[in-house]
């Protein structure tokens, strides 16, 4: 059957999430498509961006995007995130690259099982508290340890950079209402959340099903982003402010982009999400990328077996005996 429109790319033709660029932020430009690349045109000229190698495209204010550009990004598995001024606010995102629900099912199992959720939460805190035994700590104790650790990180970087530091102050309604260091921290956190969001949705996970965080549409994004905050967004923010640059938000975005590349954030993020969720449900983490490029196969849930093959008609010949139908209905 000949379907109209551009043929979707085969999953084997796409770059793995961990092998892609982290993110590109664009504002006040027209986003179009030219062959396999996304073009960004503004008063300074036109830039070509290979769609298949892009992790997340952050669209800021004043951007106009064509339908064909969105088609290319969607079929390339590149997540599009619509953000506010300076990339601080999140509004919406595009589609997932995942063809398998293995990680999503593991995530749902973790979140709905108290013991598995606690085990996964402890594993998350263990990654942030190296050398500490957290296997018997309650969530209250874990939060206390984490709070003390983060305060210590803030003090360390304030001393090292020479930047005045009082406390973390987030003003969601007015970015410029806070001091420079808090603006930098907000801008850095926004970049981190955008990239982690792109990995979470690319892997087919639910951004709102958090393990430690709950009740927010990005709860799981916050869970994963917190794994890297102390070594990534906090140091970058203090280092940029110490340089006394005129455009703090812009400088932070560029510094975050470079640091994410250096630390191979996408690769680490993919590995950490897979390991945390699959270990918590007693599954074996697959080789890098296997869960993302899972076969495009639909199965049917069965109450007697794990699943049965989809895409076929089940009739009398597939039942154990004719009375099974009445038994199922009753």
Descriptive report:
GO terms for molecular function: endonuclease activity. It is an enzyme of class 3 (hydrolase). Belongs to the CRISPR-associated endonuclease Cas1 family. This protein has 330 residues and is of the alpha/beta class. Helices cover 41% and strands 14% of the residues. It has 10 helices and 10 strands. The chain has helices spanning 67-75, 102-112, 114-128, 139-161, 180-202, 219-225, 233-242, 248-262, 265-280, 323-329; strands at residues 21-26, 30-34, 37-42, 45-50, 54-59, 64-65, 79-83, 90-93, 299-301, 307-309. The chain has a 4-stranded mixed β-sheet, with helices on both faces. Strands 4-3-2-6 form a 4-stranded mixed β-sheet. The protein starts with 20 loop residues before the first strand and ends with a helix. Residues 3-15 and 288-295 have low confidence and may be disordered.
Keywords:
alpha/beta, 330 residues, four-stranded mixed β-sheet, disordered N terminus, flat, antiviral defense
Largest sheet data: 4 strands, mixed
Q: Bin the strand percentage.
A: 5-15%
Q: Give the termini distance in whole angstroms.
A: 41 Å
The number of helices is 10
* Number of extended strands: 10
> Given the C-alpha coordinates, what overall shape results?
flat
Secondary-structure-based class equals alpha/beta
Q: Give the overall average pLDDT.
A: 81
Rg (C-alpha, Å): 23 Å
SSE series: EEEEEEHEEHHHHHHHHEEH
Query: What share of residues is helical?
Result: 40-55%
> Could you give the order of strands across the largest sheet?
1-5-7-8
- Poorly predicted runs are 3-15, 288-295
Subunit structure: Homodimer, forms a heterotetramer with a Cas2 homodimer.
Binding site for Mn(2+): 146, 213, 226
Keywords: Antiviral defense, DNA-binding, Endonuclease, Hydrolase, Magnesium, Manganese, Metal-binding, Nuclease
EC number: 3.1.-.-
